[in-house]
Write a structure and sequence with these properties.
With 174 residues, this protein is an all-alpha fold. 58% of the residues lie in helices and 0% in strands. It starts with a helix and ends in a 14-residue tail after the last helix.
Length: 174
Amino acid sequence: MKLTDEEKKRLEDLFQYFLNEPRILKMKEVPMHRGSNCYEHSFKVAKKAIKHGLRRINKEKIDLEVILVGAILHDYYLYDWRSDPSKRKRHCHNHPDIAVANAVKDFAISKKVQRVIKTHMWPIKFKDYPNSKEARIVSVSDKMVTIGEAFTSIKYKKKKREKFLSYISKLFDD
């Protein structure tokens, strides 16, 4: 199953909407792994997850909109856990629930997207298994991006900082 031009445009428009959404831009203030921020991290996860979803879409039914929105909002917790001692200890376990609550409050998201956000920390949060294809794709993509960020130098990241802002339509050219 190939994406129609209309489906491609819908995904591109959704990506651009979130890229410039003022509430999402607040994620730039939240530090992440080795010099990146939550905004950059989330959009990298979204692009990687969409890429994985596109590889599988010919074999099975995959909801790319759920993947895109879930990936962008998976770390929508909006606080710096490193500077707040009360959040430091349980951040890995608590932030998915906080991200879901923030996303529900700020955006009209489906139960399926909520589940993608809630389960992205599996297996660390073992009881929250990603039970849909979309949730598993986002969870694995998050881990791949996190590992890349953890082992990439800050100097290299600064050189490549704007690359992730490119349109996702480039992914459809394969």
